[in-house]
Request: fold
Amino acid sequence: MNGDSARLLCGTPGLPPGCVALTYDDGPGPRSAELARLLRDEGVPATFFVLGESLARHGDVLDTYRECGHVIGLHGDRHHRFRSPEHAAGELRRCAERAAGHLAGTVWFRPPYGEGDWPVPGFAGPVGWHAHGRDWDITYRHGQTVEACVDAIAQAIMERGGGIVLLHDYAANTEFAQSGLADEDLDLRVVEITAALIKRLRAGGLSFVPLPEPADSHAGAQLPAAAARAPGPVGLMATEDLQSIRFHRATAKAAGGMLDVLMPMRTGDGPALFCAHPVVGLSWCYMGLLPHVDARFPLYGLQVRGLRRPEPLPASMQEMAQDYVDQIRTVQPSGPYHLLGWSLGGNIAFAMAQELERRGERVGLLVILDSSLENLDELDQTNEPWLIYNLVLAQFGYVPAITPADPEPEARMLELVRRRPGLGLDEWPDQRVRALQRVIKNNVVVAKTHRLGRVTGRLLLFSATRNPPTVAEKVESWRAFVDGPVEAVELDCDHRHMLLPHLMPQLGPALSDALARATAAEPTRAV
Reply:
């Protein structure tokens, strides 16, 4: 706390232009959990520089920080100025001991009052800030208001085009006790300030990002290559991961819990697009396509068996494809058929194309969202229980908070689900939630053991450019399996984020155009 509008310490990281990082000092406190959930629901990552003496009172909030995908940094054990690097190291070490079990790798730190411009071995920083709004003067009843605090921060951040914001989610005991105040006297207004600030800065065209990982950080478990496509432990979550959580929460709500094998997302009289589920077995994610794909094309999702009620799962990809082809022919008796699949759904769509051709039907368009028919051995790594349960959580819009260190990942998943009502899974019986693991494991097995062939028709490949191999290599790989033209559209994203709303203005029109061309090239029977 000080009167400077900014304090840039020697370890303050840079941010991309137009980006804002929200940071909070002195907590956790009575409203910190509420604040962490607000940020999560807004898709805003934050860094909480925790204070040891506050952890002694509200240490349970560390779980909420972690579950909501935020980063935990260190502020010291007590709110005293650091006198030397040695003093700082002792303060940070004691604070880290209080937060044991919630930290990984090299941790960011910020000195109290922003004083102490020297690195501390074993920690990253010190981290300063570019703007604050004297929110502590609200705490200490010095005439500051929520509106004035938000105005001061927004003006400073928008003038410089982004930066690090300093706020407080609690007041250090060493501060308010000396002022003659008790917990019940304090009104931080941090939730109101944060909500208003997010709205103001977004309206100004700014985006929210976490502090970048320290250059020498080895935070988190080293994941196998296949696992990189699955939701990982929180604390490593990027902005897109938080946006993905919000996206899946919205599409799960829009799907209304529908578990039909053939899920009608939009019906109509035109040629339909049939969307094969990814590895989790549900097609709710494709609800995000509806506003962006030409309305003349009905959309259907194909979903795995074994969730609505116990029943045998397919023993092979061919058996799964046969079942799904039977399903789509109930609404479109003859071809040509248009198929789409994201991730493992692309493998399923390809198998369906094989089955349709075996039955003498034609495939008009095969749309692949960054799938591969080769190098599937790494899928075995995705069968680790903690990764599977994170996939389950992410599909329903929960934060994937399970780590390899959790001794009972299934119990941990059920705990997270029951703690956060209103997202869908809390209404499922335990047996159905557990069935998702069985479904995912089976989907991986049948994909790995599928015998490849060739199909005839047009293929449209959407390629995530942030994942290897190169787009050209992906196209060449698919040419080995397709007799027909292969067209590629590059999306600047990670494989996991291909269906996020900000990519739809590019994906939607390209998909609609390809469907229109495929329809014009060959007469299609109405659904």
User: Anything to note?
Assistant: Residues 430-448 form the longest helix (19 residues).
